[in-house]
What we know:
This protein is mostly beta strands. The chain has one helix at residues 25-30; strands at residues 4-6, 9-11, 17-22, 32-38, 45-50, 57-59, 67-72, 77-82, 91-98, 107-108, 112-116.
Amino acid sequence: VQLQASGGGLVQPGGSLRLSCATQRFTFDYYAIGWFRQAPGKERERVSCSSSSGATTMYADSVKGRFTFSRDPAKNTFYLQMNNLNYEDTAVYYCAAGAGCAVMDDHLGQGTLVTVSS
Length: 118
């Protein structure tokens, strides 16, 4: 499974970013997909995961109400819209795919850095 994340950057607190993950068409049919992040000195955290059917999407408590996962199979891309960013959201974000959300880290993209700073 090929995963290519993009869209990271520097943003002020309260700002927004949208991350994109380019993948292959079959990923949407057979894998749970979503996003991890890892902040400096912290363990990797599963931010969001959507089931292969797209019927269910989970979010980490730390991002609920601020982040939104979406997918566009026609463009072979899925997204993470991040709003109202705060300093604690600073991390490298990885798009991922796996047999299920519990093993979503079976396949990881290269990561894109999000820095929230004033």
